[in-house]
Design goal:
This protein is mostly helical and about 80 residues long. It contains three helices and no strands. The protein has one domain.
């Protein structure tokens, strides 16, 4: 009985670790998906993704309003970030 209980306990730990790994992947997957989407949007609009992201990361701290943030989007005609 003890060996069976110990094995079962170890199995629960392995399941718990696997579940935590899935949760961590889910938390990482969403931001990575958003970044990938942003890069692909740049490409679709003829914008160099690297230059856009560098400009974006420099401009974000300066944005104060929703209009400022919207102006940073890669499909905006002004392309003020690049």
């Amino acid at each position: 009985m003890f060996a069976q209980a110990a094995f079962h306990h170890g199995e629960e730990n392995a399941q718990h670790r696997a579940l935590q790994g899935c949760i961590a992947l889910k938390e990482i997957a969403q931001p990575l998906g958003q970044l990938y989407s942003l890069i692909e949007t740049c490409k679709a609009n003829g914008i160099d993704p690297y230059r856009y992201l560098v400009g974006l990361f420099r401009a974000i701290p300066l944005a104060k309003s929703a209009d400022d943030y919207e102006a940073l989007l890669p499909w905006r005609p002004a392309k003020s970030v690049t």
